[in-house]
Write a structure and sequence with these properties.
Distance between the termini: 50 Å
Number of helices: 16
Radius of gyration: 22 Å
Number of strands: 21
Helix content: 25-40%
CATH architecture of the largest domain: 3-Layer(aba) Sandwich
Strand content: 15-25%
Largest sheet: 10 strands, mixed
CATH superfamily of the largest domain: Mur-like, catalytic domain
């Protein structure tokens, strides 16, 4: 990866350096010789990793942390009253958004950016793994912990870069990748976009950001995304998916506990040769993960990476943390941790669970953000009625104010209209071991879904269940 020449002597301070997106960019800049420091309200695995690298991390936000700082980096989550931001503005310290720093890094490299409502992290990770397998040695910045890297970041030595482009705050339109990948689109982040039509405009803008010799790749299984991309001005467009109209299509699909197995048909286009690839094995379960892998195959074929190296990368790929992660197999009851927090993601997670043919699927659901729970309320009901037993926790607010008439009690009451006593409120997380013991039997799957602190609950369970062994 090319060293950035400009401003190499500046000291850059990241406000909220422990965040998934912020920590990755900080690590990459540090690897390039920049003087990096940051602050966060909490110590977490990301701050611990950065400290081990030699990056100074302050606990808490204070103007005292900014001694000698020339550049301040913030994310959209930083409040305008943050003391470090206020001090920087007062002292005329340059303030940049996280997306500005990511765009600056991409400018100096051959970049691949992945965006979409769902599947970004897994798709970005798969693309990075394929490029790594083919000795492209990419630098990668991902919005999740990749198991084989044990990090959100991979530092490479080439000028190739693979990044996850966050769509939550509209910043994806500031990125200008050589290859743009769009996985899907759903009604999400309406607190920022205000309307679905506005979200669609941003996605089209991102798709049009590739250069003349660049490529826009998209999943044609998503009907809305397919319609949006029909308005893309770029001549180099490639579709992938499971439907017959896709340029790169998966066929003969088999999914079991050992993985996902399929063949691939590639149509002849201005960028692709006609080809059939047999016997692909992916160490991830589910049709949605097959779609994610097809995006990686599409990128690989554009870059003339041979099939052997694609297969090798897929077989070695160990997945992403909190994506249908098996936490424990207690008395034959599989306990799963999953990041799903949107109805479409929960739907895919439940479909994956059913593929494993369990006796029962029990879901512990923590709604994430009052605004999302309200906007997608009926979609959550429609999806969650398909499990066998449902426990609903309090809404994880993520800093939002409580919305009247949006509560776990109301949701449970309405879910029980589908089946009597099917849903129950989770009133105390300390009751989770008893719930597993009383509700679960050998052959069942218990899935914890949500983007809040529910992951801590499920990862604490193995120790709590030991006393019952």
């Amino acid at each position: 990866m090319k060293i950035l020449k400009r401003n190499i002597k500046n000291r850059i301070h990241f406000v909220g350096i422990g965040g998934i997106g912020m920590s990755g960019i900080a690590e990459v800049l540090f690897s390039q010789g920049f003087k990096i420091q940051g602050s966060d309200l909490l110590n977490n695995n990301n701050t611990k990793r950065l400290k081990k690298l030699g990056i100074k991390v302050f606990l808490g936000h204070s103007s005292k942390n900014l001694k000698g700082v020339n550049i301040l980096v913030i994310s959209s989550a930083i409040n305008k009253n943050n003391p470090e931001l206020k001090f920087a503005k007062k002292k005329k310290i340059s303030v940049y958004k996280r997306s500005d720093m990511l765009a600056a890094l991409m400018k100096y490299n051959e970049s691949i950016a992945v965006s979409g409502s769902h599947g970004k992290t897994t798709t970005t990770s798969l693309i990075s793994s394929v490029l790594e397998s083919a000795n492209f040695d990419p630098t990668t910045i991902i919005g999740g912990i990749v198991n084989q890297y044990k990090s959100t970041t991979r530092i490479g030595k080439s000028n190739w870069m693979v990044v996850e482009a966050d769509e939550s705050d509209g910043s994806l339109i500031n990125l200008f990748p050589k290859i743009a990948v769009l996985t899907n689109i759903n009604k999400e982040h309406m607190d920022f976009y205000k309307s679905y039509s506005n979200l669609k405009k941003y996605f089209l803008n991102f798709a049009n950001n590739t250069p003349f010799d660049g490529v826009t790749i998209f999943c044609s299984d998503n009907s809305d995304l397919k319609k949006i991309l029909s308005g893309c001005k770029k001549r180099n467009k490639i579709s992938y998916g499971l439907n017959t109209g896709s340029d790169i299509r998966a066929t003969n699909i088999l999914i079991n506990e050992k993985g996902s197995f399929f063949d691939i048909n590639i149509k002849k286009t201005n960028l692709l040769k006609k080809e059939k690839i047999k016997k692909i094995k992916l160490n991830l379960l589910g049709r949605h993960n097959i779609q994610n892998s097809l995006a990686a195959v599409t990128v690989a074929k554009i870059l003339n990476i041979n099939t052997y190296k694609i297969k090798k990368a897929f077989q070695k790929f160990k997945g992403v943390k909190r994506r249908f992660t098996l936490v424990s197999n207690f008395r034959g009851i599989k306990i799963i941790d999953d990041y799903a927090h949107h109805p479409e993601e929960i739907k895919a997670t439940l479909e994956l669970a059913r593929n494993l043919k369990p006796n029962k699927v029990i879901v512990v659901f923590q709604p994430h953000r009052y605004s999302r729970f309200k906007n997608l309320y009926y979609d959550f009901k429609k999806v969650l009625k398909n499990c066998d037993r449902l426990y609903v926790a309090n809404v994880y607010s993520a800093g939002e104010k409580k919305i009247k008439n949006i509560s776990k009690e109301k949701f449970v009451f309405e879910m029980n209209k589908f089946r009597q006593n099917f849903a129950k409120p989770l009133n105390n997380i300390n009751s989770l071991p008893e719930i597993i013991l009383n509700e679960g039997n050998k052959g069942d799957i218990v899935i914890f879904v949500g983007a809040g602190d529910i992951s801590k609950w499920v990862n604490d369970l193995p120790d709590k269940l030991k006393k019952f062994s």
